[in-house]
Amino acid sequence: MTQPLPYRVAALYQFTRFDDPAALRAPLLYVSDAADVRGTLLLAHEGINGTIAGSGAGIEAVLEHIRKLPGCAAIEVKESRAATMPFHRMKVRLKKEIVTMGQPDLDPLQGVGTYVSPRDWNALISDPETIVIDTRNDYEVAIGSFAGAENPETASFREFPEWFRARRAAIEAEGKVPKIAMFCTGGIRCEKSTAFARAEGVDEVYHLKGGILNYLEHVPERESLWQGECFVFDERVSVGHGLALGSHTLCRACRMPLSEEDMHSEHYVEGVSCHHCYETRTDEQRARYAERQRQARLAARQGEEHIGRRLDRQADG
User: Fold this and answer.
1) What pLDDT, in 10s, does the model give residues 59-68?
2) What is the CATH classification number for the domain harbouring 150?
3) Region (Disordered) spans which residues (predicted)?
């Protein structure tokens, strides 16, 4: 009998109302550290979002704590397994939004779109009257999406509202009534994007319940309309059908996902550069990345963890 991979990975979110999210941070960090759980959790007045990894018992201890937070008893959790720990440390961060759209008056607890289960998703997006929109950012869409889905080509979720307004205007200029199906990685962005669409006056709006991860977990590959892999924000980089580990790696300079073909580019140097970032980094930055990579290799040879190799998707100064 095949043994399960040793690390349990839990992606979670819950829109709820936290009066004082700062007061929740220290207890959550303490419970996570005590359970040897790592990852990133975001806290804001609108709720909690993030991904954590650890042993089965460790994850259960953290989830038990989270479920006792206001409005989190039925929190949405997507689980998978990993062969190695996909995070370097545990971070609990305070944010203005748990997924940043930049629409301060939007309430994701009100007026979200109609949830569609993975088993019913194929029929919806196969309807020629349905406009299917991938709400993720361009680097995520580049490695996989649903067949026929529109790509807003956004660099951040903040750009989505402007793109959506223009797209809706174009649809209505053709004399059509929008029927929209949206999807994202785990469902959280669609809570906001569908609420936004409805607030903008679009009545028929749907979204994939549990996101791409839920679909890949429950829809057999032979029946799937998904093409490629799904980017995830941890050291696994991407996953495929059945949430199996994908084939992509990460450029440590710009944090972009790279295929095997990308790594044959003349601009690819492990830990230093790739075709995405070669023209936008200085020689000084590349020298710094090269030293970081050297330190990481040295730590690996010595059997130590090099915590400087982060997966934050933060801009490198």
Assistant:
1) 999 999 999 9
2) 3.40.250.10
3) 297-317
